[in-house]
Design brief:
The chain has 142 residues and is α+β, with helices and mostly antiparallel strands. Helices cover 17% and strands 42% of the residues. It contains 2 helices and 6 strands, in the order H-E-E-H-E-E-E-E. A 6-stranded antiparallel β-sheet has the order 1-2-4-5-6-3, with helices on one face. The mean pLDDT is 93.
Length: 142
């Protein structure tokens, strides 16, 4: 999926849509990608003269790729992040880097889904974490 297809699946929009592409590669596995351009809002003050992608942004990128896995192609439910555990940051991510995210469904108890994800640059893991999501249907109008 490209960014426009992702917008049909995810509720995120610019500047918070942090995936360039994503795909379901096998049952229970998704892959996503993001190219760090260097002009992103989150690099403006992190850090001046030495821009580094913040860890919380790496977590958001992994979470968005994981949403593609959790949503499973349905457009009638919204995946909400409900938990983040065991986040680890192993190397810096810099402007010009291409981030590859791999997410694996660990278990599910609908409407809750549990995912392990890792982000890598150039074949080296730069971050990994475990996420939980709730897949919610649209609420009835009040």
């Amino acid at each position: 999926m490209d960014r426009e297809e992702l917008k049909r699946l995810l509720p995120h929009r610019e500047p918070m849509l942090l995936l360039d592409e994503a795909e379901l590669v096998a049952p229970g596995t998704a892959r996503g990608g993001y190219q760090v351009r260097g002009d992103e809002w989150f690099l403006q003050g992190h850090f001046p003269g030495n821009p580094v992608v913040p860890g919380v942004i790496l977590c958001e990128i992994m979470a968005q790729a994981s949403c593609v896995l959790v949503a499973g192609g349905t457009q009638d439910a919204t995946p909400y992040l409900t938990g983040l555990e065991r986040a680890r940051f192993r190397q810096k991510v810099l402007p010009g880097d291409s981030i590859l995210i791999e997410s694996t469904l660990a278990r599910e108890k609908p409407p809750f889904y549990f995912v392990s994800a890792q982000a890598s640059v150039g074949g080296r893991v730069c971050a990994n974490a475990e996420f939980s999501f709730m897949l919610a249907r649209p609420e009835e109008p009040r």
